[in-house]
Specification:
mainly beta, elongated, 7% helix, ten-stranded antiparallel barrel
Amino acid sequence: MLQLHSRPFDWTVRFGAIGALVGTGFLFAAAPALADPSPALDRFSFSVGGYNADPKFNASVNSPYGSLQSGDIKPGRVTMPRVSADVLLGDSQGISFDYYQYKRDYSGGIASNNSFGSFGSLNTFGNANISTKLDFAKLSYKWWIGSGNTVLGLGAGAAYYRATLGASASAVVNGQVGTYSQSSSDNAIAPLLEIGVRHAITPDLRLFADASGVWKNGGRFHGNIYNASAGVEWFPVKNVGLVLAYNVTNIDLTRDADFADTRLKVRLQGPSAFLKARF
């Protein structure tokens, strides 16, 4: 069977942006004092936590003989690791970084009956396994409007995403009974737009809401990723706090191929919790 592979996303690249933000944060801490920003913003912050989502996904994995399609599946809740960091440049501009990974396997009764003329046919039977993995990272430049307890943020930047889809099943391929196994993987960089609002009830109790969109129309690997979240930040001590939010994420990615498109559609919604350090 045809196997498609691309170079793994190097962990040093993945966290290089975090290192740059951390370094910038300490640089600001050592620099001469600046004018105080809005109490809704921090000079530098770093958050680590998890996104507990209830996913609904639809995946198709292609081969020269046909496509194995899952249909709409709700495989149960999954907790995804998530990391974010923000650096304020001056009083009204900044840099923001965010990373998460979605990974899920599904096994169930999935059938396929496809024919591609002279290339052959694929007929699956019994249970099939579908594995999905998505890495998503974004880096954006933000402009904050306002200087009181409430500020509006506008952001623009770039997002990196990498998706891997795999499938295996008992199958009849060109009249021969055996095991069908197929995988595809690809990555891309796409433009990103963001909007957000921050409100400080007190310097240690704040509300926020964010929305972002990533889209890419051209190229072999294209699609869109949208995210919205709203929540609260509470700092029981000056530099360490707890962030609670509710998130909705919609992912629709397609990898074009000669015989059939590989497609991953995922809708995630659920709460997230973070520990946040600010300076």
